[in-house]
What does this fold into?
Amino acid sequence: MSETKIAIHGTGFIGLVSGCCFAIKGFKTINSTYDQIKCDQINKGETPFYENGLEELLREALATKNFKCVVGRKYAVLNSDVSMIAVGTPMGKDYSINLTFIEKIAEEIGQILQNHNQYHLIVVRSTVVPGTTRNLVGKRIEKLSGKKMGEDFGLCMQPEFLAEGRSILDTLEPDRIIIGELDKKSGDILQKIYGVFYEDHLNNCPILRMNLESAELVKYGNNCLLATKISYANEMSRIAELVPGVDIVQVMRGVGLDYRINEKFLRAGVGFGGSCFPKDVNAIISFARAHGYDARLLRAIMEINEDQAKHTVDLLENELKEVKNKKIALLGLAFKPGTNDMRFAPSIRIIDYLLEKGAQIIGWDPVAEEEAFKIMKNSILYADKIEEALLDADGAIIVTEWDEISQLQPNDFKKSMKTPIVVDGRRILDPTKFQDEITLLSIGKR
Ligand code: UDX
It folds into this structure.
């Protein structure tokens, strides 16, 4: 059992997963939220969103008696040594980062620390543009608490790299830990916590210490490079489509085997979505622009990503001559398999473009229908089964690589569709098996 008590402000992917992980590693942990319903759910062992293995982990954390969730920040701050900030930093209307929730939590912590005479370490875990931890969080806490940063309270920035669907594994077995620190004392406290948390895992997981701003930029550097790899693969797939017989899957396999590159994140397709890549790449483009730099490469990455969704529709349209009043089935709506998350999902861009062209759309997804409905409402139809989506369809686009879709056979399309024309936006159908049976248009293979 560790002496250090941790408060985690926020109950999203980062907040709830790390809260549970700290508890099972023997830390007294309090998660805080403003949502009473969410709080009650969590304390009963129910997760407020779907994540692989999280419900079991939450129950395990509750069983240790180390873990609880509370409403409001005060109890959590006053009963802990460290406050980790894991609130959302969504994309604003102008594509820049919206720091409203960060500002609010900093003010709340500042007010609470006013009458608290114990040193408290504040660790920002949310993704924030460089300068935010020091100039917004640190200074706002100083102003409201009347205390001095570096003396009365410490400040760190520790970016989080977890991917949805593997949040628990990414938290328990990260490949590195980045500690941005205001001063040595702050960094030492955090490093000591991770010494207890990770024990032997640290033999394979370097801890890098740096200043706050560098740590903030590591997170953007990471997501921007991964997004770059995807847009690069998508651009190469467009070039591959110019040459008969070339297959982007083979090309990227060949490229990825270079020891300097690696094959991960080189899968061409309908483009990337999710809660991080689109938001973070846009946030850093806006940040650079506000500081007088035009981030041309990153702008191109977003442009290619937007375009890729349209390209899947164009492929179908070329084959059908027009999509107006045609029934188009979308197989998969979530931004990736294993989640019901629809944030910035490529399906949204595809649907918008298809609707602009007057198509009638029916979507199928094994888990994301409810989330999709919140965004698309009745602008599309929803099918309970794949067969229902394909029935009498003039064309289909594969948007998410769910197993149920990878397992489809040529006959599944032939028997249900009016014309079996399928765009494989994720390269999950084997062209050699399908090409003589249906019209298969695979991304990156003409
Ligand atoms: C990502 C990062 O991986 C994670 O480190 C960060 O903390 C948050 O953002 P996540 O958004 O959960 O995680 O999903 P990820 O698996 O990275 O996929 C993001 C998107 O890229 C998905 O839409 C996926 O389909 C797409 N993708 C991924 C591709 O199109 N091609 C690839 O080769 C890989």
Remarks:
- The chain has a mean pLDDT of 97.
